[in-house]
Design goal:
Length: 200
């Protein structure tokens, strides 16, 4: 029993030792959603996608920046979007993260979230649904300048009853990309002395 208690105390001391702390403890996380769909993303998806990030990057390691504060901080500071993806390179995200005072930045650019019903020309023909989704996701971590990018592209015409909606394609794609980003952005651990010096 004494040996078990000693082992337990050793584990506790190692886990809670001040010699190792998370470099991202309570780090600010910014989510910037740029809508080029004519308002579809802003109206139907922006809150959900922001919540997806919050659920995966949360307290005690992260803290989501309030959207109103974020919009105020970035007003007039976002670089123009290019014509060809990737729209924002690492340097663009670095500037956005600096303006937002964010340690971790996610940028989601929605280009297409379209559904078109195609009626058959024949009396007993099938009604079709054409779905087109185009979304670009990028992430940037200030501590090590790590840049990640992911494209969601979907274009398919299917029978109305069997077709997947643009909403499902978009939400599944964004959620999967954020999961992938989380796996590629493990919390950095630094020595206490490095943390006191800003991780330098």
């Amino acid at each position: 029993m004494k040996h078990i208690l000693k082992a337990f105390l050793c584990v506790c001391l190692c886990v809670f030792s001040p010699a190792a702390v998370s470099a991202f403890a309570d780090s600010p996380v910014a989510v910037v959603i740029l809508d080029r769909t004519g308002g579809v993303a802003d109206k139907n998806f922006s809150k959900l996608w922001t919540e997806m990030v919050r659920r995966r990057f949360h307290f005690p390691d992260y803290k989501l920046i309030d959207q109103r504060d974020l919009l105020q901080a970035l007003r007039g500071k976002l670089p123009p979007l290019g014509k060809k993806p990737p729209y924002y390179q690492a340097e663009d995200l670095k500037r956005i993260a600096g303006g937002a005072a964010a340690d971790l930045l996610f940028v989601i650019i929605a280009d297409k979230l379209d559904e078109t019903i195609i009626h058959s020309r024949w009396p007993f023909g099938e009604t079709l649904l054409r779905v087109s989704v185009s979304i670009d996701l990028m992430a940037y971590r200030a501590a090590d300048a790590k840049y990640l990018a992911k494209k969601i592209r979907y274009f398919k015409t299917d029978i109305m009853g069997a077709a997947l909606s643009a909403e499902r394609i978009a939400n599944d794609g964004v959620g999967g990309a954020i999961d992938e980003f989380r796996d590629k952005l493990p919390t950095l651990i630094v020595a206490q002395g490095d943390a006191d010096n800003g991780g330098q």
